[in-house]
Amino acid sequence: MDTANVTCGNASTILIPQRVREKDDDHTLRILLYSLIFFLSVFGNLLIIVVLTVNKRMRTVTNTFLLSLAVSDLMMAVFCMPFTLIPSILKDFIFGAAMCKIVSYLMGVSVSISTFSLVAIAIERYSAICNPLKSRVWQTRSHAYRVIAATWVLAFTIMIPYPIISHLEAFQWPDNTTAHQCRHKWPLATAEQTWYVLLLLVLFAIPGVVMIVAYGLISRELYRGIQFEMGHKKDSTDVKNGLTSTVSSGSDDGDGCYVNVVQGPHSMEMSTMATSGRALKAERPRSNTSEAKLEAKKRVIRMLVVIVVLFFLCWMPLYCANTWRAFDDISAKRALSGAPIAFIHLLCYTSACVNPIIYCFMNTRFRKALLATFSCCVAPCHRHCHCGLRDNEEDVMATGASMSKFSYTTVSTMGTC
């Protein structure tokens, strides 16, 4: 008996050829995990969509790409998870022939848009941090809209084969019961192999390399900023020590900026002490600011590493399984049927719930915008209640993407969400 296929993210759910009744504990665990990931994905991405839509001044260039990413991740959760879990549990695709084609198509489209959005965010961040002056010329919201439109059109175009090759077929189990399977019927085996290799390159290998290069260059730039801050901190310490020695020795070995305006030895000493005291007081907040900048840059570097690692962790098993199945179907079925392929699918679905956490919810300014957006829902609205950020807060967020390469990361440690 041929296996049933349900595509999600361009992968095939490999069902067991015989009607094997799995343990109820396995079903319960799988349902719980899928339900948890589904709830987190839908709830998290809906919050991002609402916040970025209500707070119009938060619609920066990066936020525009994040909005597209949230929509695609929401599509992935809605069109992938239920249509993968239910047929896997029932061993029967119960949604009909039309949904077989529609779901297969939207599954591929949602994954493509999500991947293209991640690549666009990586390139935008690289330009904003590593080439801030040049990027300000072309990094506009209108340009972001055009890029997003192109990614959506490209995703809908390259996934056209899925509704063509997806077919609903009926088959008989050994106990004479009838079930259905949503299968991919390729005209040639070489066509299937070419397709999955193409997807491996377009939706995994090339985006992964682009993200590694972009975030690697960003990390190098931030590391240089850390070295600059450390050197500046050392110079400030030396200057502070020099001022202290000037006060204690009474000599004028300093920079002489405050000596020329003083008349007489006594007034010179008092002026020197007063100026050095002001410098020492100013040094404390300046030192705190420098430490904050260093920690912000270090957090950004760690977060960029996490983004790349999670991308490969979530998607590498899926595309490897696809390619393996295309070239050696029998051994792939034997090795991946049941729990392994369900776990692989769950990994790729996890990206739909971790993306909101990484790109937005770990951002302090996004959390403030979230609280401001829903504040009117908690408290009764007054006559002039303004849901969202105050004007000055929104202005800070709206201009966050145009910062220089060093101050950019102090405004937002995770982007401009």
Automatic annotation (TrEMBL):
Q: Name one GO cellular component term.
A: plasma membrane
Residues spanning the membrane: 31-54, 66-90, 102-123, 144-165, 195-218, 300-319, 339-361
Q: What is its main location?
A: membrane
Tell me the PROSITE patterns matching this sequence.
Answer: G_PROTEIN_RECEP_F1_1, G_PROTEIN_RECEP_F1_2
CDD domains the record matches: 7tmA_CCK-BR (cd15979)
Q: Where is the G-protein coupled receptors family 1 profile domain?
A: 44-359
UniProt keyword annotation of Transit peptide present: no
Q: How does it sit in the membrane?
A: Multi-pass membrane protein
Function in brief: Receptor for gastrin and cholecystokinin. The CCK-B receptors occur throughout the central nervous system where they modulate anxiety, analgesia, arousal, and neuroleptic activity. This receptor mediates its action by association with G proteins that activate a phosphatidylinositol-calcium second messenger system.
Q: Mind telling me what this protein is named?
A: Gastrin/cholecystokinin type B receptor
